[in-house]
Design brief:
Mean pLDDT: 92
Oligomer: single chain
CATH topology of the domain at 484-624: Penicillin amidase (Acylase) alpha subunit, N-terminal domain
CATH architecture of the domain at 484-624: Orthogonal Bundle
CATH class of the domain at 484-624: Mainly Alpha
Low-confidence stretches: 1-15, 164-174, 695-699
CATH superfamily of the domain at 484-624: Aminohydrolase, alpha-helical knob region
Distance between the termini: 33 Å
Number of helices: 19
């Protein structure tokens, strides 16, 4: 076994031995399977493979994670960097690295070494900013993803209140995911089945990457990750797998702080006296036309957390669960090494992976669900959905709930579970959890099950025995759950309208919708009309929409289609498209680029095959930006069997044959074999090589 010296020196020390001992196998779809003697060696090779496939994305992710985005992007990224420094992500990541156990530290050291080895062996690659990667960078990127990018928004700070960051998001904050499991009683072969279906952004730091790590130390895990994470963190091994969908576990609060002593500007009220805030100065460097400009920023935090905004004249401090704590990466690592549901639960006991509905299946036939989250204990007298008074000591958190106190369900009598970002109390049709056992603040979802969840539960409840092939078809089911009720309401509204001109205008479209089979298809005009009509409806589409508004919106939808396409009878595949661009280079999808027709359904309309398409400036069509970013089904028989498909392909290089080769599969609702054993991989091999070697046949 290789020894690792502590600290950044390890990256240099392990570079050559790891490169010599690691083999990267690329299958026919370009997916990397990394074989190594040690877990650290597998992380080294996985870093190298990621860098081969999309180095620019890794670098940009790390640049954002360490608060240096404005050095590349100028003024528009300055607020993002200021928020990063207010949350002290670089400092916390460095300190976490120094405290890591030796095995997790070895993974970070080796991953950084793999990236640096890639740069050393590819002098033609010119980083835009980072010429050397440090082993604390992956830890900073984890914090950036889950605290800065997502968690702070869950705290409830409004965009107009933020002093440190602007909410520049093109998509909904939470576009959701689907996760299902069924036990042996509901399958034809008596094997548990798992469905993994994250709905993540297709571009930017949130996009996913597929890969497989294997070591002689017993680590053998395949699935998806983000560019810059040291290993896949959702997927399966030979006997266990899981899916994670975002939950709404309340793990952040806003405290209204009172600074009212002119003689002591840092004094804020607390109890019968005052406490002193901490203030410090940092420097953000911003790219301008004249070069880099150093800008000092003054930041402040109370004992509750950093000041991130102002409300009603009071500074807002955000407190986020375990912001300064360690363990997210170590918990993922322990999870990937677990071999059963029992071992997975043990690995998750620290609750360092702060949120997510985790749903798992194993070879023993167990299916398990956990409403995972580091949920603070709070005084139930307060309304924790808004702000609380920072001067009142009674608003302090009182530790965290343990794993035994979270909603959890093992082997329900129904034999199946679904959680697609909905309530943990309505995941199946028999054996659900009792909501009264849990504090209201713990589970903000309450009894809510969204349309995607209802679509999935209709399939799960209605299928007595699943086959592997049927499970694969269900992963791309395109029946639009809300179509029946929405079209019936539209018919009533059209009949009742007193505006004869409007009735004449929309009646042909309403007649077409009435006869529609409610299934999304690229040839379907009805899908085009329904999807855009629903998208254009004002306000909350889950609320009762006035009949006149329904009719007027449909007329406006038809007008919009005629302006853009010359007619309103446009097939869905001419509107909804899937296209890949090099987002790290600032490219945007457009009508002149190659794309494929995409039958995915907006999550709000309720179908399993979910995709979020958005208009682009000056373009007629809508282009996929998020949704079914990785689809996988897994069967846990004597030998694990899996299918999978990525939205685009394994490589971010437009010159690679794997840049867009999986997109047509996904658009057709198909998956490819996801090979797991070395014999399977070698039988479907494109290339094998050691990091740094020229790979014959690789492009």
């Amino acid at each position: 076994m290789l020894a690792f010296a502590p600290g950044p020196v390890a990256s240099q020390a392990v570079r050559i031995p790891l490169a010599r001992d690691v083999t990267i196998y690329r299958d026919r779809w370009g997916i990397p399977h990394v074989w190594a003697p040690t877990d650290a060696g597998a992380a080294f090779g996985f870093a190298y493979a990621q860098a081969e496939d999309y180095f620019a994305r890794i670098e940009r992710n790390y640049v954002q994670a360490i608060g240096r985005a404005a050095e590349l992007d100028g003024e528009r990224a300055g607020a993002q960097d200021r928020l990063n420094r207010a949350l002290e992500i670089p400092r916390l990541a460095r300190e976490e690295y120094a405290r890591l156990d030796h095995r997790t530290r070895a993974l970070c050291d080796a991953f950084a070494a793999g990236l640096n080895h890639y740069l050393a062996t590819h002098p033609e690659v010119r980083p835009r900013l980072l010429t050397r990667f440090e082993p604390w960078h992956p830890l900073a990127f984890i914090r950036y993803n889950y605290f800065q990018q997502g968690f702070v928004w869950a705290s409830g700070v409004r965009a107009d209140e933020l002093r440190l960051a602007s909410r520049n998001r093109r998509l909904d904050d939470n576009v959701g995911s689907n996760g299902w499991v069924v036990g042996p009683s509901r399958t034809a072969d008596g094997h548990a089945l798992l469905f993994i279906n994250p709905h993540l952004p297709y571009f930017g730091s949130g996009q996913v990457y597929e890969g497989h790590v294997h070591s002689d130390e017993g680590w053998d895990f395949t699935g998806y990750t983000r560019f810059g994470f040291p290993f896949p963190y959702v997927g399966h091994n030979a006997s266990l797998g899981w899916v994670s969908t975002d939950n709404a576990a309340d793990q952040a609060d806003l405290y209204l702080e009172t600074f009212d002593d002119p003689a002591r500007p840092l004094a804020y009220r607390y109890g019968k006296g005052y406490r002193m805030a901490t203030e410090w100065t940092d420097t953000i460097r911003v790219r301008t036309a004249e070069g880099l400009e150093a800008r000092p920023v003054t930041l402040r935090r109370t004992h509750h957390g950093p000041i991130v905004g102002v409300r009603d004249g009071h500074p807002l401090a955000v407190r986020m669960a375990r912001l300064a704590d360690d363990g997210w990466l170590a918990e993922w690592y322990a999870m990937t090494r677990a071999r059963s549901v029992r071992e997975l639960r043990r690995a998750m006991q620290p609750l360092a992976m702060l949120f997510g509905n985790v749903m798992a299946a194993d070879r023993d036939g167990h299916i398990w669900y956990l409403y995972n989250g580091a949920v603070p204990r709070r005084d139930p007298r307060f309304d924790w959905s808004g702000t609380v008074d920072g001067s009142d000591p009674a608003t302090e958190w009182k530790g965290y709930h343990t794993i035994d106190e979270l909603p959890e369900l093992l082997d329900p009598p129904s034999g199946w579970m679904d959680n697609s970002n909905g309530s943990p109390f309505h995941m199946t049709d028999r054996g659900n959890l009792d909501r009264s056992r849990f504090p209201k603040y713990m589970v903000p979802e309450g009894d809510f099950v969204n349309a995607r969840g209802r679509a999935g539960q209709r399939l799960l409840a209605g299928t007595p025995k699943w086959t592997f092939e049927g499970w694969a078809r269900a992963a791309f089911d395109r029946r639009v759950f809300l179509a029946d009720s929405a079209i019936a309401a539209l018919e009533r509204a059209t009949t009742a309208t007193e505006d004869a001109a409007s009735r004449r205008r929309v009646t042909p479209a309403v007649d077409m919708l009435r006869s529609w089979d409610r299934v999304s298809d690229t040839a379907s005009v009805a899908m085009t009309v329904f999807s855009l009509w629903r998208r254009f409806l004002p306000g909350d589409q889950n609320a009762e929409t006035p009949p006149a508004t329904m009719v007027a919106t449909l007329a406006a939808t038809l007008d919009s289609l005629e302006r853009r396409f010359g007619r309103w009878q446009v097939p869905w595949g001419d509107v909804s498209r899937l296209e890949r661009v090099v987002d790290a280079a600032g490219e945007e999808p457009g009508d002149a680029r190659p794309s494929v027709a995409w039958p995915a359904v907006h999550g709000g309309d309720g179908a399993v095959f979910t995709g979020y398409a958005a208009p682009q400036p000056g373009q007629r069509r809508l282009y996929g930006e998020a949704g079914a970013s990785y689809v996988s089904i897994v069967e846990f028989g004597p030998q694990v069997r899996a299918l999978a498909v990525h939205t685009f392909g394994a490589s971010g290089d437009p010159a690679s044959p794997h840049f867009f080769d999986q997109a047509p599969l996904q658009a057709r609702g198909e998956m490819r074999a996801a090979w797991f054993t070395l014999s399977e991989i070698r039988a479907n091999l494109e290339a094998s090589y050691r990091p740094g070697e020229r790979a014959a046949g690789r492009k």
